[in-house]
Design a protein that fits this description.
GO terms for molecular function: nucleic acid binding. This protein is of the alpha+beta class. It is 42% helix and 22% strand.
């Protein structure tokens, strides 16, 4: 089996062991920017919700990713069932580090997403 396939298999196994779907909703997010300066954000949580939206013009992939996480957080907070845990599976290491940082951010979306009480 090629190395990328092996790494993917280990990653999926780790996620399923640490974050069982029975106890942890799995929330997938993605943000992207196009050459024409348009950006979009999308999110998906199996059996619970999904959505997408256009992000602001002239945003970066990073800002679109933050918006996807923010929108998913809002949807999670709006659910009638309160979940004690949820795992966000995000493909932007920069977005994860920014949201988890102890330092203030210059970006309004980052600060708004951090302060969201879920």
């Amino acid at each position: 089996m090629p190395l990328p396939a092996v790494l993917k298999a280990y990653a999926l196994e780790t996620i399923s062991i640490r974050y069982s779907r029975d106890n942890w909703p799995h929330i997938y997010t993605d943000g992207s920017a196009q050459e024409d300066c348009t950006t979009g954000a999308s999110f998906y949580c199996e059996r619970l919700f999904e959505g997408s939206c256009a992000a602001s013009l002239n945003n970066t992939n990073f800002e679109a990713e933050i918006e996807a996480i923010r929108q998913a957080s809002l949807r999670l907070a709006d659910l009638k069932t309160a979940y004690r845990h949820a795992v966000f599976l995000v493909n932007s290491q920069a977005a994860i580090f920014s949201l988890c940082s102890l330092h203030d951010s210059d970006l309004v979306h980052v600060e708004e997403t951090r302060k969201k009480d879920i």
